[in-house]
Amino acid sequence: MSPVFTPAAMPALPVRGSTETFPVRRVYCVGRNYADHAIEMGHDPNKEEPFFFQKNPDNLTTSGTFPYPGKSNDVHHEIELVVCLGKGGEDISVEDALSCVYGYAVGLDMTRRDLQGVAKKLGRPWEVGKAFEESAPVSEVVPASEIGHPDSGAIWLKINGETRQNGDLNQMIWKVAESISYLSGLFRLAPGDVIMTGTPAGVGAVQRGDVLEGHIDGIGDLKVTVA
């Protein structure tokens, strides 16, 4: 049997220092995973279990350009550590979770905040605010075999040279291993799955023409222009 149309190519991310690519299967995002960001969004981080939403694999982009999306006048930046899984499974223990990680990247969870706000108010899913085209600019993937598993280090974002977000990976409420373990109890994880691990405080709006520069110690940098 043959497909009725030519299927789209599987989304993939470049791997630093390699001609190989990391094929993307699914994209999971951890919500409100830094205490200061949870507080700035009006929530008490001490009362929440981890929760997740999804972006689409083809939302990931490495073009260096973020096209300002339609239907929104309030698009926000969220700088995040991106975890790329080389192995998966169900009910993975915290102790075994990091063995599933192929590598790490720097990413942006771009958000149509106004549309997300309406969805929250009406108790609806967040996809219109989170899973739109090119909503996840990402850097190249750095293999864990080269850098290990960073659990601390600066994570920051500048816009037009001005620091907007500034945190540390050790401020995550749910650490990488804990997020993988919890998520594997909800979904069957597999190679190619990507986890965006949440953002520190300081999220805010971007404007057309802005230049966004993100950084995570030990992993790398990401530069994106808002088109």
Q: Can I get a quick summary?
A:
One of its GO terms (molecular function) is metal ion binding. The chain is α+β, with helices and mostly antiparallel strands and 227 residues long. The protein has 6 helices and 18 strands.
Helix content range: 10-25%
Parts with pLDDT < 50 across at least 5 consecutive residues: none
Rg (C-alpha, Å)? 17 Å
Count of domains:
1
CATH class: Alpha Beta
How much strand? 25-35%
Largest sheet: 6 strands, mixed
Strand order of the largest sheet: 4-3-15-8-9-12
Distance between the termini: 42 Å
Q: Work out the number of β strands.
A: 18
Fold-level CATH name: Fumarylacetoacetate hydrolase, domain 2
Class inferred from helices and paired strands: alpha+beta
- How would you state the average pLDDT, rounded? 95
Task: Tell me, briefly, the overall form.
Answer: globular
- Going by CATH, the architecture would be Alpha-Beta Complex
SSE layout:
Elements: E1 12-14, E2 21-23, E3 27-30, H1 35-40, E4 52-55, E5 60-61, E6 65-66, E7 75-77, E8 79-85, H2 94-97, E9 101-108, E10 111-112, H3 113-122, H4 127-130, E11 136-137, E12 142-143, H5 144-147, E13 154-159, E14 162-168, H6 176-184, E15 194-196, E16 204-205, E17 211-216, E18 220-226
Parallel strand pairs: 3-15, 5-11, 6-18
Antiparallel strand pairs: 1-2, 3-4, 7-10, 7-16, 8-9, 8-15, 9-12, 13-14, 13-17, 17-18
